[in-house]
Amino acid sequence: MCCSCNIFYPPSFSLETQLLLCVFVFVEFIWCTLVRFTVYCFCLISLVDEAAREKLAPFSALSKDESYQSRDLETATQQEAKHLYDAKVQPTTLLPKQVGNMYTASLYAAFASLLHNKNDSLAGKRVIMFSYGSGLTATMFSFQLQNGQHPFSLLNIAMVMNVSEKLKSRLEFPPEKFVKTLKLMEHRYGAKAFVMSKDCSLLASGTYYLTEVDSMYRRFYAKKPGDGDNTDPMSTC
Ligand SMILES: *[C@@H]1O[C@H](CO)[C@@H](O)[C@H](O)[C@H]1NC(C)=O
Ligand SMILES: *[C@@H]1O[C@H](CO)[C@@H](O)[C@H](O)[C@H]1NC(C)=O
Asked: Which domain does 47 fall in, by range?
């Protein structure tokens, strides 16, 4: 029914286990993402869920190209996948939704969201990390989570990440200021021989930040002092 299934799931994978949790990132423009996501869900449910397989059977006659275009298939698939989506994907969407596209960091932001939202129920669970972008490349890997010894217990990691507080401490800027900042970034993109503004009052304690790019494109960084590390010789603010 779905020709790309074997790309995502080699037959040797145990689907029931792999499906326990699934980190999914939206990194591409939305239509494309939805279509691919539909196919993705389609693959999952048509393989693991007998009832869903029956409901989607009428679409099995569609060719691969027709299946990409079919709105009915998209709707039916999303309906069938909703409970799986809510249980396995939705908890990973907090930071991607709140912060927006972070490109390379997106997958890990999704993982951080999962650690935050499911902090007390993750030990022993398997996570699938799957990302794709505008090119032809996609990556999928999986791992199993275990509680490490303190400070590496899953709950402590979630506490240190402090996701809710970090989201709450975001600052609001008017669009004009945002545009101005983007213009500056555009101007400096790939540029050399510039020094950054010294003002780092908006950065959180402990943040590493760029101070300068010299004429040989060497980048220099400093760290804003954090609690308990005021001895950093690189600190400049
Ligand atoms: C743990 O998960 C619960 C439920 O999602 C959430 O309310 C809480 O803030 C999380 N705790 C941490 C430390 O992330
Ligand atoms: C989380 O952030 C808040 C506000 O910045 C801070 O008061 C609190 O100590 C932080 N918690 C942890 C565990 O770092």
From this structure: 5-168
